[in-house]
Specification:
alpha/beta, 3 domains, nine-stranded mixed β-sheet, Rossmann fold, disordered N terminus, 367 residues, Arc Repressor Mutant, subunit A, two-stranded antiparallel sheet
Length: 367
């Protein structure tokens, strides 16, 4: 059977025997080759389908029947669908890569993966400037009809996803673990919001934990889905710079947001600009790189960030309006535990309503 004749998607919840047989074959092949995607595509090209291609894999790669069943159970629990390489639903832009994932698990709208997108990536512990910039860039790009792609991580990734959601646009999160898991766990609600309008994607078998070796592979899928990659903030040797290197290898344009030379997380994007990456001073720079002309008058920024906030968050904002404060000082002022305060602070920082000064003090963001 040719890979081009594969079903559009495979749904673990579909009880049809032929669907279940195909799904088991795809899962077995994914378990064997997910960490060797270039080999997987070669096996598929020579054999035609996952069942036959598994026979080309070294015996040591073959999964046990128990492992296949465990992954199938996890797949059903995740409510994700499987999109095999070679199916009509597989994103064509990603399929052009010589090491494209042999199987994608998708929660949400599969068709979003085929739309033009931009990856926004950066530090997990960015400055307030980095958070705000990622969110505003994503907002503007989403408003212009561009899909915002990132990795669901803390910091810049989450801010980019939030900005796209606030604009009512589409965003795609690419995970470094199985589709039945959310990493980090605190982003479960964010992942649900992303899947409701966009997609959460994994190239790893269900039940796969988020281990460090998975993330360089995840990063090349982030860049592989995108028409351009924007690095907002990144330290040397960070995952975001790995994504940028993948993009350059894939023939995808890399852009970077310049930052102050005395800020550690600016070193990555500043080095990219020095080496030839296009600087991003506004969202129009990214749109021009995509060949999209948008007049400045059409651009807008997120507004009404305090609208519909819970009372506890409004109280927190009022306290910071009165005077900036360190987190522990703010917790004492509000008579709240640091743990409960941290959750509200994270939500407000992602929304751009609260920023941290370089000395760690919290303040309300100026709009």
């Amino acid at each position: 059977m040719s890979t081009r004749s594969l079903a559009r998607v495979l749904d673990p919840a579909d009880p049809a025997p032929d669907q279940q047989r195909m799904l088991r074959s795809q899962i077995a092949f994914q378990l064997a080759t997910a960490w060797h995607p270039a080999c997987a595509l070669d096996f598929l090209a020579r054999n035609g389908d996952a069942h036959a291609a598994l026979g080309s894999c070294p015996p040591s790669w073959h999964p046990s029947p128990r492992a296949v069943e465990r992954a199938l159970v996890a797949a059903r629990r995740s409510k994700a669908v499987a999109v095999p390489f070679g199916s009509d639903a597989y994103p064509a832009w990603l399929a052009r890569l010589g090491d494209a994932p042999p199987l994608l698990w998708v929660q949400g709208r599969v068709e979003v993966l085929g739309l033009p997108g931009v990856a926004i990536v950066g530090a997990r512990a960015p400055s307030a400037y980095g958070l705000r910039t990622a969110r505003e860039l994503a907002f503007d790009l989403a408003r212009a009809g561009v899909v915002v792609i990132s990795g669901l991580a803390l910091g810049v990734d989450a801010a980019a996803h939030r900005g796209a959601l606030e604009a009512g646009g589409n965003t795609v999160a690419v995970q470094g673990c199985g589709a039945d898991r959310i990493y980090p766990a605190r982003h479960r609600r964010l992942a649900e919001e992303i899947a409701a309008s966009g997609a959460v994607v994994s190239e790893f078998p269900p039940a796969t934990p988020p281990l460090p070796p998975h993330f360089p592979l995840r990063n090349r899928t982030i860049s592989g889905l995108a028409r351009a990659v924007v690095v907002v903030e990144a330290r040397p040797r960070s995952g975001s710079l790995i994504t940028a290197r993948h993009a350059l290898d894939q023939g995808i344009e890399v852009l970077a947001v310049p930052g102050a030379t005395d800020v550690a997380t600016s070193s990555g994007p500043n080095a990219l600009i020095r080496d030839g990456a296009a600087p991003v001073l506004e969202s129009a720079d990214v749109l021009r790189a995509l060949g999209i002309a948008t007049p400045l008058a059409a651009r807008s920024k997120p507004d009404a960030v305090r609208a519909a906030r819970p009372p506890a968050q409004l109280e927190l904002l009022a306290a910071l309006d009165h005077a900036p404060a360190e987190p522990d000082e703010l917790a004492r002022r509000l008579r709240r535990s640091p743990e409960s305060l941290a959750l509200d602070l994270l939500d407000l920082e992602l929304a751009g309503a609260v920023a941290r000064d370089r000395d760690g003090r919290l303040r309300t963001s100026s709009k």
